[in-house]
């Protein structure tokens, strides 16, 4: 197996709740969908995509640190990442902290 290299982001960041790997920055948030408890990001870091067998147009987003399924790619549009709010820790001091 290869070694996993994670990118350390600067400033306020959204992190994986399980392993604290940096996943995104607040400036990349397109929307916060309160009803379904998700964030829609324009881009994410330290993640990889796995194609769903049930629907090839959608892909699951996994954290590279702990291999936790944190969201879905391609739901809100071709270049959007929908991340589950209960699997991500918001920036320190924000209203997104868990």
Automatic annotation (TrEMBL):
<dbReference type="InterPro" id="IPR018130">
    <property type="entry name" value="Ribosomal_uS2_CS"/>
</dbReference>
<protein>
    <recommendedName>
        <fullName>Protein yippee-like</fullName>
    </recommendedName>
</protein>
